[in-house]
Design a protein that fits this description.
Length: about 375
C-alpha cells in the first residue's frame, strides 16, 4: 500500500525533485461534501422495566408447614421490594446517562461545526466548549460507576433469590403437611422461579449496558484528545485514529533504532515526507489524512517514523542536525499520539542522508 503512491512533501515541493512543485490534496474536511459534525450516537441502553410478578395469597392451614409457607412468602415479598428499588435506580441512571450523553454530543457538534468552517488556532471559545464536553463525558463515567455499584447489589439479590428457591424446595420434605400446604408451596415455588429469572435478566442487561458504555467512553476519550489537537491547529481533523485501528501486540518502541529495514530488499517509498526547512510547519492535517487512509486499507498496520538528517559539513554539524531531526520526529510522534494512534504501533529510527537538503521526517507503513 505504501508503494502505491508517493505522498508529497508538506513544504509544497515534490520529494523526487527540488525544482518542480506539487499541490497538497484537499483535506478530509474540504473534500467531504456532507461532513459529519458530531460523533456517532452513544450506544443504546436497555429499555426493559423489571417489575416483579404478583405474589399469590393463600389461606392459613394451621400446620407447621403452613406457617413455613407464610414465612417464605414474606421473604419473597421483601426480596421483590428490593428488586423494585433496584429497578427504579436503574431507570434513573439510564435517564441521567441519556441526558449527559446528549449534552456531550451537543457540545461536540458545536465544536466540530466551528472547526469545519475554520477558526483561529487555540480559539478560547472552543477551548471552553471542549472543557464542557470533557465535563459531560466525566458525568457519563460517573453514571457507569453507579451502574457498576448497582450491578454488585443485583448480584447480591441474585444470591438471596437462589437461596430462597432452595429453601422453598426443601420445604416439601417437612413432615406434618397437608395437601393445601403442598399446593401453596407449588405456587410459591413458581413465583420464586419467575423472580429468579427476572433478576438474572436484570443482571444480564445491566452488564451489557456497562460493557457498551465502557467501550463508548474509551472511544470518546480518544476523540476528545484528537479534538484538542484540532482546536490547537484551528481546523477539523476527524475522529481518533485509535478508533479506526485494531489493537496490536507489537512491542513498544524505546528510543531510536538504526535505519529502517527495506521492503524485500528494495527501496521503501514513504507514506508521508515532512521537511522541516522552516519554522511552524503545518503538517498535522495531511499527516492525519495519510495515516487515516492507510488504516482504512489496513486496520492493523504498523508505522515506521524515520528521522533523516543531512550528512553535510563537519562532524559537529552533522551531529547537531541529527539531534534536531530526532526532536522533529518526536514532535511528529506526539502528534500521532494526539490523533489517537497507539504508540506501540509506531517504531522510531534515525539515519543520515547524503541527498537530503534539510531535516526530514518520513513515515512508512509496514
Amino acid at each position: 500500500m505504501a508503494s502505491d503512491a508517493l505522498w508529497p512533501s508538506l513544504t509544497g515541493e515534490d520529494p523526487a525533485s527540488s525544482t518542480s512543485a506539487s499541490n497538497i490534496p484537499a483535506s478530509q474536511a474540504e473534500a467531504n461534501r456532507q461532513p459529519t459534525l458530531s460523533p456517532p450516537p452513544p450506544p443504546s441502553l436497555g429499555r426493559t422495566n423489571f417489575v416483579p410478578p404478583q405474589i399469590s395469597q393463600g389461606a392459613a392451614t394451621g400446620t407447621y408447614v403452613g406457617q413455613r409457607v407464610v414465612q417464605l412468602r414474606s421473604e419473597l415479598q421483601r426480596l421483590q421490594g428490593q428488586i423494585g428499588q433496584q429497578n427504579a435506580q436503574l431507570q434513573a441512571i439510564r435517564n441521567m446517562t441519556v441526558q449527559h450523553s446528549q449534552n456531550y454530543h451537543g457540545t461536540v457538534a458545536a465544536v466540530n461545526a466551528r472547526l469545519q468552517v475554520g477558526t483561529t488556532p487555540g480559539n478560547p471559545t472552543l477551548v471552553n466548549q471542549w472543557n464542557v464536553a470533557q465535563a459531560s463525558l466525566a458525568q457519563v463515567e460517573n453514571d457507569i460507576a453507579q451502574m457498576n455499584s448497582l450491578a454488585n447489589g443485583v448480584a447480591g439479590t441474585s444470591t438471596l433469590s437462589a437461596y430462597l428457591l432452595e429453601t422453598t424446595r426443601a420445604a416439601y420434605g417437612l413432615s406434618g403437611a397437608i395437601d393445601s400446604d403442598h399446593r401453596q408451596l407449588a405456587i410459591l415455588e413458581d413465583e420464586v422461579n419467575r423472580t429468579v429469572v427476572l433478576i438474572d435478566r436484570l443482571l444480564n442487561e445491566l452488564s451489557e449496558d456497562i460493557s457498551r458504555q465502557n467501550n463508548y467512553l474509551s472511544s470518546e476519550r480518544t476523540n476528545l484528545t484528537t479534538m484538542a489537537l484540532a482546536i490547537k491547529n484551528g481546523e477539523l481533523l476527524g475522529s481518533s485514529l485509535g478508533n479506526r485501528a485494531f489493537s496490536s501486540s507489537a512491542p513498544a518502541a524505546s528510543g531510536f533504532a538504526a535505519a529502517p529495514a527495506t521492503s524485500q530488499g528494495g527501496v521503501r517509498r514513504p507514506l508521508v515526507v515532512i521537511r522541516f526547512d522552516r519554522t511552524n510547519v503545518q503538517y498535522e492535517q495531511p499527516l492525519y489524512n495519510a495515516v487515516s487512509r492507510a488504516l482504512q486499507r489496513r486496520p492493523n498496520a504498523l508505522f515506521d517514523l524515520v528521522a533523516i538528517a543531512p550528512n553535510r559539513g563537519n562532524a559537529a554539524r552533522v551531529a547537531l542536525s541529527a539531534s534536531s531531526s530526532k526532536k522533529n520526529a518526536e514532535t511528529v510522534l506526539r502528534s500521532l499520539s494526539d490523533m489517537g494512534l497507539p504508540l506501540d504501533r509506531v517504531r522510531l529510527s534515525a539515519l543520515t542522508s547524503n541527498t537530503a537538503a534539510t531535516n526530514e521526517v518520513h513515515v512508512y507503513v509496514r
